[in-house]
């Protein structure tokens, strides 16, 4: 059974916290699931995770009654179709810079007449045995997150936010800062001004704001919560592992 509560939480502007999965091994999912994230996103954009591994990861995430999202490699028909046919509860689409980009990802996600998604029978549709039920499920429960991570998107943010099919608009901080010429410098005045423009536009329309807090720091996460961000990606699997290992080894070496 697919997770049916995450979309309603996002639409009701409730806080949900997930994390980024980059290591394609079921044991990593099992370890993260103990922490009771609301969702786990499989990152297909910046990692060499193949389609077969993606399916296994989705199955494992959902077995813990956690929503399985996929950050697709790009905003194209094949990438989105493969993720959704594999049974993902939703997608995170990178580099949304215009209304046209949103139209593309929503068309690729929904079947006609709402969209233009091609019809295939795979895990999501129980290999054809529950196709009609799956169509009904997508209408009420399919999650689409648009990543805002470019200066171009900020300049058109009011137009972009008018697209009702998107459940949350999520800042990708590294790419956003890089688009202004300051990669990784979130505290630069220009980057902070861009974030403020995004926040004000979302507040005005009462939309769910998302952010990827890359550092595994609950303090940084709470800062974003205090600013009104609701859909929060909390770090990544490899950073949770490596940062703690480095911290503890540094302490040992300093003794």
Task: Tell me about this structure.
It is a single chain. An eight-stranded parallel β-barrel has the order 1-2-3-4-5-6-7-8, surrounded by seven helices. The protein is built from twelve helices and eight strands. It has helices spanning 6-11, 26-33, 51-63, 77-85, 99-109, 131-141, 151-155, 157-160, 173-179, 189-205, 218-226, 237-254, and strands spanning 16-21, 39-43, 67-71, 90-93, 143-148, 168-171, 209-213, 231-236. The chain has one domain (6-254): TIM Barrel (Alpha-Beta Barrel). The protein is α/β, with parallel strands linked by helices and 255 residues long.
What secondary-structure arrangement, pairings included, does this model have?
Blueprint: H1 6-11, E1 16-21, H2 26-33, E2 39-43, H3 51-63, E3 67-71, H4 77-85, E4 90-93, H5 99-109, H6 131-141, E5 143-148, H7 151-155, H8 157-160, E6 168-171, H9 173-179, H10 189-205, E7 209-213, H11 218-226, E8 231-236, H12 237-254
Helix pairs in contact: 2-3, 4-5
Distance between the termini: 51 Å
Describe the largest sheet: 8 strands, parallel, barrel
Tally of separate domains: 1
- Per CATH, the superfamily is Phosphoenolpyruvate-binding domains
**What's the shape?**
globular
Rg from C-alpha positions? 18 Å
Percentage of β-strand residues: 15-25%
Architecture (CATH level 2) name: Alpha-Beta Barrel
* pLDDT < 50 stretches: none
Relative helix content: 40-55%
Count of helical segments? 12
**CATH fold-level label:** TIM Barrel
The protein's oligomeric status is single chain
SS elements, strand count = 8
Task: State the strand order across the main sheet.
Answer: 1-2-3-4-5-6-7-8
Structural class: alpha/beta
């Amino acid at each position: 059974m697919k997770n049916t509560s995450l979309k309603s939480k996002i639409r009701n502007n409730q806080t949900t916290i997930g994390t980024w999965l980059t290591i394609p091994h079921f044991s990593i999912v099992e370890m993260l699931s103990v922490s009771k994230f609301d969702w786990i996103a499989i990152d297909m954009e910046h990692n060499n995770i193949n389609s077969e591994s993606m399916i296994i990861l989705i199955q494992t995430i959902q077995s813990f009654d956690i929503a399985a999202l996929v950050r697709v490699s790009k905003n194209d028909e094949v990438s989105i179709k493969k993720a959704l046919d594999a049974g993902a509860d939703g997608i995170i689409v990178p580099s949304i810079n215009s209304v046209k980009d949103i139209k593309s990802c929503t068309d690729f996600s929904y079947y006609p007449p709402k969209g233009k998604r091609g019809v295939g029978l795979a895990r999501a549709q129980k290999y054809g045995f529950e196709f009609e039920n799956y169509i009904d499920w997508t209408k009420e429960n399919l999650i689409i997150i648009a990543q805002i991570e470019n200066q171009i998107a900020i300049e058109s943010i009011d137009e972009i936010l008018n697209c009702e099919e998107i459940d949350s608009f999520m800042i990708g901080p590294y790419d956003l800062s890089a688009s202004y010429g300051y990669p990784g410098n979130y505290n630069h005045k220009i980057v902070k001004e861009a974030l403020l423009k995004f926040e004000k536009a979302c507040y005005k329309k009462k939309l769910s704001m998302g952010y990827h807090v890359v550092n595994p720091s609950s303090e940084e996460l709470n800062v974003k919560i205090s600013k009104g961000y609701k859909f929060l990606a909390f770090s990544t699997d490899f950073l949770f592992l490596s940062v703690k290992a480095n911290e503890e080894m540094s302490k040992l070496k300093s003794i």
